[in-house]
Design a protein that fits this description.
BMP_lipoprotein; 39% helix; 2 domains; membrane; single chain; 7-stranded mixed sheet; cell membrane; BMP family ABC transporter substrate-binding protein; Rossmann fold
Length: 368
């Protein structure tokens, strides 16, 4: 799947957001969990999950999705299966593997699995699918392609807007930066919301904090070309550091680890912003660098979907995480609590309320 393909789908996603939402050698599956379904009156239900290439220990959205499934399976008293994808070529065979294992609900983690998920769902209409981070609209008609797919997606721009405002307020150099894995909508939504928040700060405070790594007008920016914590990601982070940024937002699973390494090597006072999870909690090794994290409640959304499906109440209605329903949010400042301006949290609370009531507009492919 190319960047061009995904960017071409942006208009379809926007229609979906306004019209519908607001109204390979694959790995063998791993089992876990509680009671075996069907025995002694136990629930006859098997939830399963396929990761993207980031893996289940990415300290980010794969891990959050997995934790949500495990919690639901434990509560239901059933086993679960998970299979990790190490490359794009693993997606389809991994899904076939889980279908053959008798899974009742299959969760696909990440937009990269959308095409494979859509094909698998079409071929297996009796199996329920949960798609994290993609509406699975491969024909771009504004609707999920199959009726047995439940999308769990997030208007992350709202929380990223708050992070951008906080970054601009914290910055001493007047330059903040961001970069992503690939220019997919679910990545760029962070970067664009972040830039909008910085601009809002500049307008409100009469400042001129610059954003490097994202061009709002062009809807393009700095990308590593993948989602691995590698030397390429580190070089992009270093390039931004060399341009005097003192707050850095990497968007793309584990690529934040490369950014953290570049920050430590620089010897400069540079704050990191995490994404998806509260990275302060999921990866304490970078906790001292974290200003905050832009959170997506992937674990909660997955838990709710699996719990409902296990109880025979699967609902394909898309879940859209927002500030209002707490599907997205900003983590606390943790170790930076004493370093930020005392007035900042109060200002963020007011902005959050404005975003929720619509008086402060935040644009995204989900909100228009």
């Amino acid at each position: 799947m190319t960047i061009t393909t995904r960017k071409a789908g942006l208009s379809g996603l926007a229609i979906f957001g306004v019209a519908a939402l607001l109204s390979g050698c694959a790995s063998a599956p791993e089992s876990g969990g509680g009671s075996t379904g069907g025995a002694d009156g136990a629930l006859d239900y098997l939830p399963c999950m396929v990761s993207d290439a980031g893996g289940f220990d990415d300290k980010s959205f794969n891990q959050l999705g997995y934790e949500g499934m495990v919690k639901a399976a434990d509560e239901l008293g059933v086993e679960y299966k998970k299979v990790q994808s190490d490359a794009e070529t693993d997606y389809a065979p991994n899904l076939t593997n889980l279908v053959d294992q008798g899974c009742n609900t299959i969760v696909t983690v990440g937009f990269a699995l959308a095409a494979a998920a859509g094909e698998s769902a079409a071929a297996n209409p009796d199996i329920e699918y949960v798609s994290i981070d993609d509406v699975v609209d491969q024909d771009f008609d504004g609707k999920t392609d199959q009726p047995n797919i439940k999308p769990i997606i997030f208007d992350t721009a709202q929380a990223a807007f708050l992070a951008g405002y906080a970054a601009a307020d914290f910055s001493k150099t007047g330059v903040v930066g961001t970069f992503g894995g690939m220019n997919f909508p679910t990545v760029s939504i962070f970067m664009d919301g972040f830039a909008q928040g910085v601009q809002y700060y500049n307008t409100a405070k009469g400042k001129d904090v610059k954003v490097l790594g994202w061009d709002t007008a062009a809807q393009d920016g700095s990308f590593t070309g993948g989602f691995e914590a590698n030397d390429g990601a580190r070089q992009i982070a270093q390039g931004l550091i060399d341009q005097n940024v003192d707050v850095l937002l990497p968007v793309g699973g584990p690529i934040y680890q490369s950014a953290a390494a570049a920050i430590r090597d620089s010897g400069k006072e540079i704050a990191l912003i995490g994404v998806d999870a509260d990275v302060f909690e999921t990866d304490p090794s970078v906790g001292d660098l974290l200003l905050t994290s832009i959170r997506k409640a992937i674990d909660v959304g997955t838990y709710d979907a699996i719990l409902a499906a296990g109880n025979g109440e699967f609902d394909a209605t898309p879940f859209v995480g927002t500030l209002e329903n707490e599907g997205v949010g900003l983590a606390s400042f943790h170790d930076f609590e004493s370093k930020v301006n005392p007035s900042l949290q109060g200002e963020l609370d007011e902005i959050k309320a404005g975003i929720i009531d619509g008086s402060i507009p935040v644009t995204s492919y989900l909100a228009g």
